[in-house]
Amino acid sequence: MDFYLGIDFGTSGARAIVVDDEACIQIEVRYAFEDSLVCEMPDIWQKALFELLEQIPEELRREIRAIAINGTSSTVLICDAAGKPVDAPLLYNDARGSSMLEQLKNLAPPNHNVLSATSSLVKLLWMRQLPSFRKAKYFLHQADWLAFILHGCLGISDYHNALKLGYDVEQLKYPQWLEKMQISIQLPKVLPPGTPIIEVRPEIATKFGLRHDCQVCAGTTDSIAAFLASGAKLPGEAVTSLGSTLVLKLLSHTRIEDARYGIYSHRLGDLWLTGGASNTGGAVLGKLFTGAELESLSREIDGSKASELDYYPLLKVGDRFPINDPNLPPRLEPRPDNPIKFLHGLLESIARIETRGYELLQKMGADKLSRVYTAGGGAANDTWTVIRARHLQVPVGASVYTEAAYGTALLAMRGVEE
């Protein structure tokens, strides 16, 4: 029997899932990131990748036919000709590139998805100012670089990761306006997600006991991997990822792009995954409550009743969607003395932001919302599910599989089967 490995690099850790030919999970392993400086992150990513491989039993490793990796969207780095990072990566939520937006507005089409303070292209323009840029040969997304460690071929990406770099996912090429920018660095060659690239490097196969013909496939982003895992298949079905951040994905016949609201669409076969990502979410709750407190206090909340508290929960200034404003201030006041009421207000407020997001997507022309699947840690909070269903007015439930690594394993499986 053949097996397929999907690896998910999220914000707090990495996970790996192996599935068989029937898409049944054989094993799931995890690696939590240690607190570290951003400049140390590539070493930690590589360590996590190798640790995950080592955690998979040898008998499964020997039969893995294909591997795919997802990473956080718009987490990027510049590398030299050998693939070694020449500076610290810029993480998904790094908005230092906002200083490049005015320059980019003169080059990119109006309201294009690259016109965001955290887009890959804005980050590339910001990195171009760094002294280290002179040593750089390749611009890669997190998933691209991790796949390179396995297969050894630099400069390959997928059209999910490359969307916010400006890649045209309808025409399947870099647009003329981007080529006219004459960026003095190698932009990735872009493949459909799941496309087999090449076999794992011989030394990797030997080190971890992998098949020498094991294919490394083009990857995807973490939120799309979560969508693939969810079970959602029909236009109008959506997935909300309630992890550190809040990510909405609505399957639609219509492609919607509007940087004014942080809306973008990913290609998914003949359909489009339209949506956006907000900086609100679990990271804010984790800052204010322990995991045990979140669990116990949630049980004390009556989710059928609305909270009158109106917050905009953020860890720091700025949001991307449904309000795309790098200067949007967090709103966490007034804070009641009762922690149950405070948490109720927070859960209710994040549900309002989610609802506002889906309403905006439909207003812009996406298919009517019919069902919401939930991925990420927030999927386990039954009280929050009740609150969200009350706001969304459609059935809300957990994804069939909630781990993005499962969706990435399916991507690897489908890639080599096609």
Structure description:
By secondary structure, this protein is an alpha/beta fold. It has 13 helices and 17 strands. Strands 1, 2, 3, 4, 9, 10 and 11 form a seven-stranded mixed sheet that branches. A six-stranded mixed sheet has the order 14-15-13-12-16-17, sandwiched between helices. α8 (222-230) packs across α13 and α11 crosses α12.
Descriptors:
single chain, 418 residues, alpha/beta, seven-stranded mixed sheet, 21% strand
Strand content: 15-25%
Task: Detail the poorly predicted runs.
Answer: none
Number of strands: 17
CA-based shape: globular
Query: What share of residues is helical?
Result: 25-40%
Largest sheet descriptor = 7 strands, mixed
Give the number of helices.
Answer: 13
Write the layout of secondary structure elements.
Blueprint: E1 3-9, E2 13-20, E3 25-32, H1 41-55, H2 58-61, E4 64-71, E5 76-79, H3 101-105, H4 120-127, E6 138-141, H5 142-151, E7 156-158, H6 176-179, E8 189-191, E9 196-199, H7 202-208, E10 215-217, E11 220-221, H8 222-230, E12 237-242, E13 246-252, E14 264-268, E15 271-278, H9 282-288, H10 291-299, H11 339-363, E16 371-375, H12 382-392, E17 396-398, H13 404-417
